[in-house]
Amino acid sequence: MTFHQNAPGEIRAIHEAGELGPDLVPVHANTVSDRELAWMAEAGMAISATPQAEVAATRSVSVLRRAIAHGVTLSVGVDTLAVLPIDLLGQIRLAHILLQHTDAQAMHDAGRIAAALAGEAKDERS
User: Fold this and answer.
1) b/e per residue, 23-52, with b = 16+ CB within 10 A?
2) What highest taxon heads this organism's lineage (predicted)?
3) pTM of the full predicted structure?
4) Do residues 61 and 55 make contact, with C-beta atoms less than 8 angstroms apart?
5) How many domains does the chain have?
């Protein structure tokens, strides 16, 4: 069963009620904490991401990489069919691009991109 998960703490409340299970698939899940993702992984749950809707609504997409890191399965869907195209392949492509962006931002923040570029420049001078 899918359900829109938008408010912080919803997964915690379902966990505390003892109802988390592989038959529940939260849609969006942008507000889940890392602890909630760990509970979801333990319960064998997946998340249904709707990348274009997330970007259009200016929601964080950090849950994509965090879910993967916790072992939560990702599925991709299309939300708001009256507004967005029914293009599942496009949603998958966008999810991939968003994951690449998230990874590149993390590398940049850690100084790894600048270090790699400095190494390349040094190699070219040698």
Assistant:
1) ebbbbbbbbbeeebbebbbebebbbbbbbb
2) Bacteria
3) 0.73
4) yes
5) 1
Query: Tens digit of pLDDT for each residue in 15-55?
Result: 999 999 999 999 988 889 999 999 999 999 999 988 877 87
Q: What is the DSSP string of 1-54?
A: -EEEE-STTHHHHHHHTT---TT-EEEE-TT--HHHHHHHHHTT-EEEE-HHHH
| 37: containing domain | 2-125
Domain with 117 in it: what CATH number?
Answer: 3.20.20.140
Q: Do 58 and 36 meet the contact criterion of CB atoms below 8 Å apart?
A: no
- Count CB-CB contacts under 10 A for residue 76: 20
